[in-house]
Amino acid sequence: MTPKSYYTQSIKSEAKRLGFLSCGISKAQFLEAEAPRLEKWLNQNMQGEMSYMENHFDKRLDPTKLVEGSKSVISLILNYFPSETQVEDTYKISKYAYGTDYHFVIKDKLKELLYFITSEIGDVHGRAFVDSAPVLDKAWAAKAGLGWMGKHSNLLTKQVGSFYFIAELIVDLDLEYDTPVTDHCGACTACIDACPTQAIVQPYVVDGSKCISYATIELKEQIPSSFANSMEDWMFGCDVCQDVCPWNRFSKSHREPLFNAKPELLSKSKKDWEEITEEVFREIFRKSPVKRTKFEGLKRNIQFLKKD
């Protein structure tokens, strides 16, 4: 076994030990195919008020501009599919936000993996990325063979569907590279047909400004009237396109205790949410992704849904 092959296998074994579903590796280079797609998406203003998407265009497409001398992008996915979901007929929260904020959970695992790499291999430099830097996570994961981009623009795998987080280590280490898998969406349009706001404007293209997740999380102003009667009780995020995807029949419950929801989050009725106080909000959503929308933002979302 060559050193490159040994390093690659060691990294993948350690990733599995740390609880990642899978690990794939691709060469750190300019994302040629994604560049015109990203440019077109931005030119059509599909980012809405998410102006940060317009920043660092070059860095988004070229990891060597993020990590000097980088040679490999190690992509990892971590399951968050819950064993229990909220009660029926309530205001809904996207499943990814049930537990502790994934940024904290994954960052710690990535630090451990990077520590393992430097301990086992030596002088390796790299950076960990969890959805908070200009990195096209899904593109890198697809390039590394971890799945294909579904028509809802989420990464899909035959074995476990799409309910997982994606993260990367970009390192200055030569490794063996994986190859992309084929697309298995076929003629299915379940996600396109089910999207309550027609945000999937064509297969593989989502207009972010029409997405319920955008309206309930990213948008800081009032929710536009165009969303009226089409929010389907989602007060934070939206899982519709994933819930209807046939590949998510294969989703299995995660094994990460930090992703478990507090019982009171799962049991609250619409009336409970409508009467939530700031104190209760802080208690339920301590270290939660829902803190992003803040108490006032969640109240705004609930008020909008009440009018529906």
TrEMBL record:
<keyword id="KW-0408">Iron</keyword>
<dbReference type="InterPro" id="IPR004453">
    <property type="entry name" value="QueG"/>
</dbReference>
<feature type="binding site">
    <location>
        <position position="195"/>
    </location>
    <ligand>
        <name>[4Fe-4S] cluster 2</name>
    </ligand>
</feature>
<feature type="binding site">
    <location>
        <position position="185"/>
    </location>
    <ligand>
        <name>[4Fe-4S] cluster 1</name>
    </ligand>
</feature>
<feature type="binding site">
    <location>
        <position position="220"/>
    </location>
    <ligand>
        <name>tRNA</name>
    </ligand>
</feature>
<dbReference type="GO" id="GO:0052693">
    <property type="term" value="F:epoxyqueuosine reductase activity"/>
</dbReference>
<dbReference type="InterPro" id="IPR013542">
    <property type="entry name" value="QueG_DUF1730"/>
</dbReference>
<keyword id="KW-0411">Iron-sulfur</keyword>
<comment type="subunit">
    <text>Monomer.</text>
</comment>
<dbReference type="GO" id="GO:0008616">
    <property type="term" value="P:tRNA queuosine(34) biosynthetic process"/>
</dbReference>
<feature type="binding site">
    <location>
        <position position="60"/>
    </location>
    <ligand>
        <name>cob(II)alamin</name>
    </ligand>
</feature>
<feature type="binding site">
    <location>
        <position position="188"/>
    </location>
    <ligand>
        <name>[4Fe-4S] cluster 1</name>
    </ligand>
</feature>
<feature type="binding site">
    <location>
        <position position="191"/>
    </location>
    <ligand>
        <name>[4Fe-4S] cluster 1</name>
    </ligand>
</feature>
<keyword id="KW-0846">Cobalamin</keyword>
<dbReference type="GO" id="GO:0031419">
    <property type="term" value="F:cobalamin binding"/>
</dbReference>
<keyword id="KW-0479">Metal-binding</keyword>
<feature type="binding site">
    <location>
        <begin position="238"/>
        <end position="239"/>
    </location>
    <ligand>
        <name>cob(II)alamin</name>
    </ligand>
</feature>
<protein>
    <recommendedName>
        <fullName>Epoxyqueuosine reductase</fullName>
        <ecNumber>1.17.99.6</ecNumber>
    </recommendedName>
</protein>
<feature type="active site" description="Proton donor">
    <location>
        <position position="131"/>
    </location>
</feature>
<keyword id="KW-0170">Cobalt</keyword>
<keyword id="KW-0004">4Fe-4S</keyword>
<dbReference type="GO" id="GO:0005737">
    <property type="term" value="C:cytoplasm"/>
</dbReference>
<feature type="binding site">
    <location>
        <position position="155"/>
    </location>
    <ligand>
        <name>cob(II)alamin</name>
    </ligand>
</feature>
<keyword id="KW-0963">Cytoplasm</keyword>
<dbReference type="Pfam" id="PF13484">
    <property type="entry name" value="Fer4_16"/>
</dbReference>
<feature type="domain" description="4Fe-4S ferredoxin-type">
    <location>
        <begin position="173"/>
        <end position="205"/>
    </location>
</feature>
<comment type="pathway">
    <text>tRNA modification; tRNA-queuosine biosynthesis.</text>
</comment>
<comment type="function">
    <text>Catalyzes the conversion of epoxyqueuosine (oQ) to queuosine (Q), which is a hypermodified base found in the wobble positions of tRNA(Asp), tRNA(Asn), tRNA(His) and tRNA(Tyr).</text>
</comment>
<dbReference type="GO" id="GO:0051539">
    <property type="term" value="F:4 iron, 4 sulfur cluster binding"/>
</dbReference>
<feature type="binding site">
    <location>
        <position position="131"/>
    </location>
    <ligand>
        <name>cob(II)alamin</name>
    </ligand>
</feature>
<feature type="binding site">
    <location>
        <position position="211"/>
    </location>
    <ligand>
        <name>[4Fe-4S] cluster 2</name>
    </ligand>
</feature>
<dbReference type="InterPro" id="IPR017900">
    <property type="entry name" value="4Fe4S_Fe_S_CS"/>
</dbReference>
<keyword id="KW-0819">tRNA processing</keyword>
<dbReference type="InterPro" id="IPR017896">
    <property type="entry name" value="4Fe4S_Fe-S-bd"/>
</dbReference>
<feature type="binding site">
    <location>
        <position position="241"/>
    </location>
    <ligand>
        <name>[4Fe-4S] cluster 2</name>
    </ligand>
</feature>
<dbReference type="Pfam" id="PF08331">
    <property type="entry name" value="QueG_DUF1730"/>
</dbReference>
<comment type="similarity">
    <text>Belongs to the QueG family.</text>
</comment>
<keyword id="KW-0560">Oxidoreductase</keyword>
<feature type="binding site">
    <location>
        <position position="213"/>
    </location>
    <ligand>
        <name>cob(II)alamin</name>
    </ligand>
</feature>
<keyword id="KW-0671">Queuosine biosynthesis</keyword>
<feature type="binding site">
    <location>
        <position position="238"/>
    </location>
    <ligand>
        <name>[4Fe-4S] cluster 2</name>
    </ligand>
</feature>
<feature type="binding site">
    <location>
        <position position="166"/>
    </location>
    <ligand>
        <name>cob(II)alamin</name>
    </ligand>
</feature>
